[in-house]
C-alpha cells in the first residue's frame, strides 16, 4: 500500500495556512500520518506530531492535539457550567449533570476521535452520554426550552461553519435553553478577529440579556489564544464568578475563571467602548495619508489577475472594480480583497464598455489581446490610462497619436515575457554600452513549465493558461538574426528548429524561436548585434511530440463536416490521417509513414504518448467547435491540468556575448528560476500579475506619465518598475560565465 500523504504536510512538517489568519501559519513536525479521509462534509487528517502527540485536523485547520486540548475544552465547558446555579445537562465533571448530548453533523469526526484520540473520547461510552449524528440546527429546533447549558465547539467561520456565527443560529441556541440557561461558543482570537468578535458581541446582546467574551491560551491555535462568547438567558447573571469548586482539572480553576473575562486593554476598549487602540501599520497606516482616491477597472478574471489585484489594493486610496462577462467569476476574483467590487461587463458592447472605462482613472486589460485595441479606443474617449501585459500589435500602435492627444498613457508588455525580460535586457545592455562594450549576441529564452516533479506526462507540459493559445502559438512563424543573417521560419516547420539549450545541468531544455525577434535589434538599441533571438523553453521531447501532432493534422482549426458526435477517437484519427481502418495497428503504421521518426525508440515514445491522450481509443469523441484543434484541446485540458499540490516553474534567461573595447569578450547571463506555491500563486501568475500591478501603481502615482503607446524598452520606464519588483523578491540573478 502506498504511504499516506496530505497536501498540508510537506518535507515532514504540517503547515496550517488559512484565510482566517493571513500572513502567518502554525507548523508542527510530523512523525507519521495516521489517517486521511474525505468525509461527506470535510477533509479529515490525523497525524502523530513530534511534540504535541496525535493531532486532529479538519479542512487543514488544527482542531485539537493530545498535549494542549484540555486548555480549550475545560474553559469552553466550565465557564458556562460553573456560572450556572444548577446545570442538569452537560459535562460530566459537574455532579449535578444528569445527561449529556453530543451533536455532530459528521460521523467521521466521532469515529476517528475514538480511534486516535481515545483519552479525549473515552467519556462517550458513559451512560449519561447520548451521541446524535445529524444537523445541529434541526436538533436545536426540535428541542426548544430543554437544556441548561449548550456548548458550541465550532470550526472557524468559513464555508458552512459561517452559519454558526450568525443570528439565526444564536436564536436557536437561545430558544433551546431552559429558563436561566447559559451558552458558550467558540469566539475566535483577539489578535486576529477583533472586528468579528465585536460584531458577535453586539449580535448576541440583541438576543441574550448577558453576553461576555472570555479567553484561554492554547499553543496550537492561531496566535496561541482563543476565546468564547459566553451568554445567559438570565438577566443579571454573573458569568465571571464561579459557583462551585472543581477538582480533577488540568487548566481550569476558580481564579482563572474570573481572570478569563479580564481582557487586555486593546480588546476591552473595542468590545466595551468601541475604541480601536490597535497599532496602525501597513495598509491601515497608509489610510492616514489622505491620498486622493484613484479608481481602477480590471478587465478579466484569469489566473494572472489575482497577484495584480492584490498589489493594487495594497494602496488604500485605490478602489478596484473587477469586470468580467460572468459576474460569478468577477466575484470569485474579488473575494477577500479590500476596496474591491465586482461587475458583469461584456466588452463586445461598446456603449457599456465606454461608460465603465470613463468612470475610472485607469483600466487594466487582461482579456485576450484581440480586444485591447477596443479597450484603448474606449479609454481614449474617456481619457482613462491603460495597462496591458501583451505585445503592442499594429492595431494598438496605430492609436498612439490619439492616445497622446487624449493625454493618456497606454503601457504595454509589462508581464513576464514580455515584461520582466525587457527590464533586465535594457539594464544589462545599458551597462555594457556605458562601459564602452558591444553586445554581439543576445539570446533570450523563457518557459512556463511544470516543476520537474510534476512533469511526468508524455509532453512534459501542463496548461497554466488557454490550451488553445498554447497550441496555436506553436504554429507562429518566427524570424531572428543568427551570425548576421536573418532567418525566417514558417510556423508549420517551427518545431523542427528546436535545439537543446543549456542553462544548468539540472534541466534538459530545448529552445525554439518565438515570433519576430528582428525588431529588438532596434528596440533594445543593439545595432551591433549579429545574433538576436527571443524564444521559448520546453522540456526535451516536447517539440518532436508537437511536430507529430502537426504532421498528423491535429492542430488544424478549420471546421470538419465529418467531425460529429458518435465517432470514436480511433475513428477520428483514421479520418484525420487517411488510414484504411481504425484498428490500432493500422493507425500506428500510417502514423509512422507520415511522421518519419528517426528511430524505433522515438516512434515508440511518441506513439505511446498518442495512446495516453486517447487517440486510439474506442471512447466516443465530444467534438468542440467542429474542428480537430479544439477537440484535442478539450481532451488535453483534462489530462494536463495542474492537480492539487502541484507547482509550476518559470525559467527565463538572457545570454549576452559582449565584446569590450580592448577586444576581450565575456558571456553574461541574467536568470530567473521561479517556482509556484501549491497553496498560493503559481510562478506564472506571480511573474505576470505582479509587474502589471507595479506598473499600474506607477502610472496612478504619476511616475510613469508620458502620454501615448508605451513599452518598457527604456531606462526611464524599466528602472522604477525593476526596483520595486526586486523589493518584492522577484528578480533575475546576473552572472559572468
Written description of the protein model:
With 737 residues, the chain is an alpha/beta fold. It contains 25 helices and 28 strands. The strands form 6 sheets. Strands 15-14-13-16-17-18-27 form a 7-stranded parallel β-sheet, sandwiched between helices. Helix 20 (569-577) packs parallel to helix 21. The radius of gyration is 32 Å and the shape is globular. Residues 89-97 have low confidence and may be disordered.
Explain briefly what this protein structure is:
32% of the residues lie in helices and 24% in strands. It has 737 residues and is an alpha/beta fold. It is globular, with a radius of gyration of 32 Å.
Write the layout of secondary structure elements.
Elements: E1 9-10, E2 13-16, E3 26-38, E4 43-49, E5 54-58, E6 61-65, H1 69-81, E7 100-104, H2 107-116, H3 118-121, E8 129-133, H4 136-141, E9 147-152, H5 167-176, E10 177-188, H6 194-205, E11 210-217, E12 225-232, H7 254-259, H8 265-273, H9 282-286, E13 294-299, H10 305-312, E14 318-324, H11 327-334, E15 340-344, H12 350-358, E16 362-365, H13 372-382, E17 385-388, H14 394-397, H15 400-406, E18 409-411, H16 420-434, E19 438-450, H17 467-473, E20 478-482, E21 485-489, E22 499-501, E23 509-513, H18 520-523, E24 531-539, H19 542-552, H20 569-577, H21 584-595, H22 600-613, H23 628-639, E25 648-659, E26 665-675, H24 683-700, E27 708-710, H25 715-727, E28 733-736
Parallel strand pairs: 7-8, 9-10, 13-14, 13-16, 14-15, 16-17, 17-18, 18-27, 19-24
Antiparallel strand pairs: 1-2, 2-3, 3-4, 4-5, 5-6, 10-12, 11-12, 19-25, 20-21, 22-23, 23-24, 25-26, 26-28
Amino acid at each position: 500500500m502506498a504511504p499516506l500523504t496530505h497536501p498540508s504536510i510537506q518535507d515532514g512538517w504540517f503547515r496550517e495556512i488559512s484565510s482566517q489568519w493571513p500572513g502567518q501559519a502554525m507548523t508542527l513536525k510530523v512523525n507519521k500520518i495516521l489517517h486521511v479521509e474525505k468525509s461527506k462534509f470535510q477533509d479529515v487528517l490525523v497525524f502523530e506530531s513530534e511534540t504535541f502527540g496525535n493531532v486532529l485536523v479538519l479542512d487543514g485547520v488544527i482542531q485539537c492535539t493530545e498535549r494542549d486540548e484540555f486548555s480549550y475544552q475545560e474553559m469552553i465547558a466550565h465557564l458556562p457550567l460553573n456560572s450556572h446555579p444548577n446545570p442538569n445537562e452537560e459535562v460530566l465533571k459537574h455532579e449535578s449533570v444528569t445527561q449529556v448530548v453530543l451533536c455532530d453533523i459528521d460521523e467521521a469526526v466521532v469515529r476517528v476521535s475514538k480511534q486516535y484520540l481515545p483519552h479525549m473520547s473515552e467519556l462517550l461510552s458513559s451512560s449519561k452520554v447520548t451521541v446524535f449524528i445529524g444537523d445541529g440546527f434541526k436538533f436545536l429546533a426540535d428541542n426548544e426550552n430543554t437544556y441548561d447549558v449548550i456548548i458550541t465547539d465550532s470550526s472557524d467561520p468559513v464555508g458552512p461553519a459561517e452559519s454558526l456565527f450568525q443570528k439565526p443560529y444564536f436564536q436557536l441556541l437561545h430558544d433551546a435553553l431552559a429558563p436561566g440557561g447559559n451558552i458558550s461558543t467558540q469566539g475566535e482570537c483577539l489578535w486576529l478577529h477583533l472586528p468579528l468578535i465585536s460584531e458577535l458581541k453586539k449580535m448576541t446582546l440583541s438576543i441574550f440579556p448577558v453576553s461576555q467574551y472570555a479567553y484561554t491560551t492554547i499553543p496550537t491555535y492561531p496566535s496561541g489564544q482563543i476565546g468564547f462568547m459566553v451568554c445567559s438567558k438570565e438577566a443579571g447573571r454573573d458569568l465571571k464568578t464561579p459557583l462551585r469548586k472543581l477538582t480533577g482539572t488540568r487548566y481550569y480553576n476558580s481564579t482563572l475563571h474570573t481572570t478569563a473575562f479580564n481582557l487586555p486593554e486593546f480588546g476591552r476598549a473595542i468590545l466595551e467602548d468601541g475604541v480601536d487602540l490597535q497599532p496602525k501599520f501597513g495598509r491601515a497606516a497608509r489610510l492616514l495619508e489622505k491620498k486622493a482616491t484613484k479608481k481602477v477597472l480590471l478587465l478579466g478574471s484569469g489566473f494572472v489577475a489575482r497577484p495584480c489585484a492584490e498589489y493594487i489594493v495594497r494602496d488604500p486610496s485605490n478602489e478596484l472594480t473587477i469586470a468580467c462577462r460572468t459576474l460569478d467569476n468577477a466575484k470569485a476574483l474579488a473575494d477577500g480583497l479590500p476596496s474591491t467590487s465586482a461587475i458583469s461587463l461584456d466588452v463586445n458592447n461598446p456603449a457599456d464598455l465606454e461608460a465603465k472605462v470613463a468612470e475610472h482613472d485607469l483600466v487594466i486589460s487582461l482579456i485576450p489581446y484581440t480586444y485591447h485595441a477596443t479597450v484603448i479606443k474606449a479609454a481614449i474617449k474617456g481619457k482613462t490610462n491603460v495597462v496591458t501585459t501583451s505585445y503592442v500589435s499594429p492595431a494598438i500602435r496605430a492609436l498612439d497619436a490619439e492616445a497622446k492627444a487624449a493625454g493618456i498613457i497606454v503601457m504595454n508588455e509589462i508581464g513576464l515575457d514580455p515584461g520582466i525580460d525587457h527590464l533586465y535586457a535594457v539594464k544589462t545592455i545599458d551597462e555594457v554600452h556605458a562601459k564602452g562594450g558591444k553586445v554581439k549576441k543576445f539570446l533570450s529564452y523563457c518557459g512556463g513549465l511544470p516543476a520537474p516533479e510534476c512533469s511526468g506526462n508524455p509532453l512534459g507540459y501542463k496548461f497554466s493558461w488557454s490550451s488553445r493559445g498554447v497550441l496555436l502559438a506553436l504554429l507562429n512563424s518566427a524570424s531572428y538574426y543568427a551570425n548576421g543573417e536573418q532567418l525566417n521560419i514558417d510556423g508549420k516547420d517551427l518545431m523542427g528548429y528546436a535545439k537543446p539549450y543549456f542553462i544548468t545541468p539540472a534541466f534538459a531544455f530545448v529552445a525554439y524561436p518565438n515570433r519576430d525577434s528582428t525588431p529588438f535589434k532596434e528596440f533594445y538599441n543593439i545595432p551591433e548585434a549579429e545574433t538576436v533571438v527571443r524564444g521559448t523553453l520546453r522540456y526535451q521531447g516536447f517539440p518532436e511530440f508537437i511536430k507529430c501532432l502537426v504532421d498528423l493534422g491535429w492542430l488544424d482549426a478549420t471546421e470538419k463536416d465529418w467531425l460529429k458526435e458518435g465517432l470514436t477517437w480511433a475513428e477520428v484519427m483514421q479520418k484525420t490521417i487517411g488510414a484504411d481502418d481504425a484498428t490500432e495497428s493500422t493507425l500506428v503504421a500510417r502514423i509512422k509513414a507520415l511522421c518519419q521518426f528517426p528511430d524505433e525508440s522515438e516512434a515508440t515514445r511518441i506513439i505511446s504518448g498518442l495512446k495516453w491522450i486517447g487517440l486510439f481509443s474506442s471512447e466516443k469523441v465530444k467534438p468542440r467547435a467542429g474542428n480537430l484543434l479544439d477537440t484535442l484541446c478539450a481532451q488535453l485540458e483534462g489530462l494536463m491540468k495542474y492537480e492539487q499540490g502541484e507547482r509550476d516553474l518559470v525559467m527565463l534567461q538572457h545570454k549576452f556575448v559582449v565584446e569590450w573595447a580592448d577586444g576581450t569578450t565575456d558571456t553574461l547571463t541574467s536568470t530567473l528560476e521561479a517556482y509556484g506555491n501549491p497553496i498560493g500563486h503559481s510562478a506564472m501568475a506571480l511573474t505576470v500579475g505582479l509587474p502589471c500591478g507595479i506598473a499600474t501603481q506607477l502610472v496612478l502615482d504619476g511616475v510613469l506619465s508620458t502620454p501615448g503607446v508605451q513599452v518598457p524598452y527604456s531606462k526611464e520606464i524599466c528602472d522604477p518598475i525593476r526596483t520595486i519588483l526586486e523589493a518584492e523578491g522577484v528578480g533575475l540573478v546576473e552572472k559572468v560565465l
